[in-house]
Design brief:
This protein is mainly α. Helices cover 70% and strands 2% of the residues. It has one domain: Bromodomain-like (Up-down Bundle). A hairpin with a 2-residue loop joins β1 and β2 (146-147).
């Protein structure tokens, strides 16, 4: 067991970054499965969480290709990972908050995200989405008593720490 852990922690950074990318791909594949095969339509906040996962995955892929070696590039890498995962944490946190509001405090359902993007300026779309709507407060999927946005928040926290750990992990030669 100890040898296995040592091998895991001594993996090449390129492989570790690529594993972060694979994690993001698997999460997106799962939410697409939930949408297209289980029939659960994503609310606007779900869509923004997906965007944060995609951006985080792309950052991991870029870091797997261009491994940060200098302190400056390591700082930039950590900042990018932190910003993408923090944005996901904020959106998922807002979503969880809406889901835990008392029924009489839940905002009314608004127009769909496609309609908002086609009709309103982007700044107003963000404002309307983060104000929340009734469909974002519905919990129609849960696992171990946690809703999908709760699991998304846990994912963002873990993948954020994972990415920063890889970036600042010492190379063993």
């Amino acid at each position: 067991m100890k040898k296995t852990l040592e091998k895991l922690f001594n993996l090449d950074k390129r492989v570790l970054y690529f594993l972060g990318f694979i994690d993001c791909i698997l999460l997106i594949l799962y939410v697409l499965y939930v949408e297209h095969f289980l029939g659960l339509e994503p609310c606007p906040l779900c869509v923004f969480q997906r965007i944060a996962v995609i951006i985080t995955g792309l950052i991991f892929l870029l870091l797997a290709i261009f491994i940060p070696k200098t302190n400056r590039t390591k700082f930039l890498s950590s900042t990018l990972i932190s910003l993408s995962t923090l944005s996901g944490i904020i959106v998922a946190g807002r979503h969880v908050w809406l889901q835990n509001l008392p029924p009489d405090k839940v905002p009314g359902c608004g127009p769909g995200l496609d309609f908002m993007i086609g009709t309103f300026p982007l700044s107003e779309v963000f404002e309307m989405v983060f104000t929340g709507s009734g469909e974002c407060a519905i919990v129609d999927w849960s696992f171990l008593t946690l809703s999908m946005p709760s699991w998304a928040m846990i994912f963002f926290i873990l993948i954020g720490f994972y990415g920063i750990w890889i970036t600042h992990k010492r190379e063993t030669y």
